């Protein structure tokens, strides 16, 4: 087995899955091209805007990908390349893509509303409240994990104190990239130029930012960058969408497509060797294949965060129902392909079971491997490494932008009361629903977790993320039954993900209690993880029980 054969097999499986299984699902559930979508029915020029499918696809993919499909498979490779590849392909097709599709489909059929609204409509208000609390806690975990990854790619000094030029260049370019996005947002909003002009402006801005970043690297320690990243996402979370998030997604679409193409071409022309075993064992160190493999791979196979993006923003931009399948099912399959490329990268760069010296984080592994592939085509390694690192950083920052806003909105909605008497809410609730307070509440806890490092957070993040996917599947399964549509294809993924995530969370809780018993428990790191694990476990059980009861009631009524 080599990297090229692995890539060909994965691409063939994913393409076939889209053409056969994806289209079969669309036929089963029913796509009505003549039915007005929420974007047309509630068009307001702000949230509900009919948009070209290519643009919505770019938004969806840029928002959902993040660093997950790179980070997860690289860490999970400790079990061998075969189990990772099998789970990415099987999970990506039958779990992740199905969840993404049904979440977007259900939202479009429910006025472009979120999964929380669907839960309230088909399961009940209590279920919605529990779900919102779960989403808030999950958002904190994503913020913590991705903020640590981003600050790591910006850190200009190694542990030994040596300068890291590529990281410093990525940092400068990323800062300029944010500034360019703001300028582009103002340009697009005020002058409303055509698509060709916008595209040309975006490409020029990208080239200029990259050139200046390579010429003027900024050497700042990772700890300082962590502060800067949190200040940035605070601003991004409360700023109007057109100021930063929309133009960033637009700029990112060019950068991310270029990275994918570069990585794909690099693998095709270099046919890299696979230097890790096909299978290491069912237990590696203290990690068991079940459930650790599944919660570690996370986004490359299935991600609950996708349901929040699909139902929160993408559903309000769908121009025609026939676009639902390529935008949701298609973007998840592309993410799975990226996960396979990340697996090929770590397989190729590993030598005698070890990574090269100085290559520590998964983004560094990915960038170093792809740069190595492309140098065989005569391209300069240092520039390619910087560009790939910038792309990975752009993935992660885009997710940070989105999830910080999702967490803030979930916190606000959690304390929002529906008052029919016209009275103002109590001062406490008014304070808690303030967007600045809600953002601060989300990010302060996220920072406390981020200082633990992504490696410590990732298993808990993966568990929460995949439990969120299970809850989204339960909610959509209830919707399908209530609307007389077949939903049995959701049941297998739903119960399997519940088993995986509940087992992983129980493992985490039992490990922490074990540390209490042997006296090695840390009230800082271990305490935060224990609190999050217990809360996520309890909330997940309560929401899952509410949803499964509704499914059972429906079956009994039939």
Write up this protein.
The protein has helices spanning 3-29, 38-41, 53-65, 68-76, 81-108, 115-122, 125-154, 165-191, 195-215, 222-238, 245-270, 289-297, 305-312, 324-349, 362-375, 381-414, 427-432, 435-450, 454-482, 488-518, 525-557; strands at 283-284, 287-288. Strands 1-2 form a two-stranded antiparallel sheet. With 558 residues, it is mainly α. A hairpin with a 2-residue loop joins strand 1 (283-284) and strand 2 (287-288). It has a single domain (3-49, 69-557), classed as Amino acid/polyamine transporter I, CATH 1.20.1740. Helix 1 (3-29) packs parallel to helix 5 (81-108), helix 4 crosses helix 15 (362-375) and helix 7 crosses helix 10.
Structural descriptors:
2 strands; two-stranded antiparallel ribbon; Amino acid/polyamine transporter I; 558 residues; globular; 75% helix; mainly alpha
Q: What spatial form do the alpha-carbon principal axes imply? A: globular
Q: Helical region count?
A: 21
How many E strands? 2
At CATH level 2, the architecture is: Up-down Bundle
**Which residue ranges are poorly predicted, with pLDDT under 50 across at least 5 consecutive positions?**
none
Biggest sheet architecture: 2 strands, antiparallel
Terminal residue distance: 51 Å
> Which fold does the CATH topology refer to?
Amino acid/polyamine transporter I
Total individual domains: 1
Rounded radius of gyration (Å): 22 Å
Q: Averaging pLDDT over every residue, what do you get?
A: 87
CATH class: Mainly Alpha
How do the strands of the widest beta sheet line up side by side? 1-2
Structural class: mainly alpha
Report the portion of residues in β strands.
under 5%
Fraction of residues in H or I helices: over 70%
Order of helices and strands: HHHHHHHHHHHEEHHHHHHHHHH
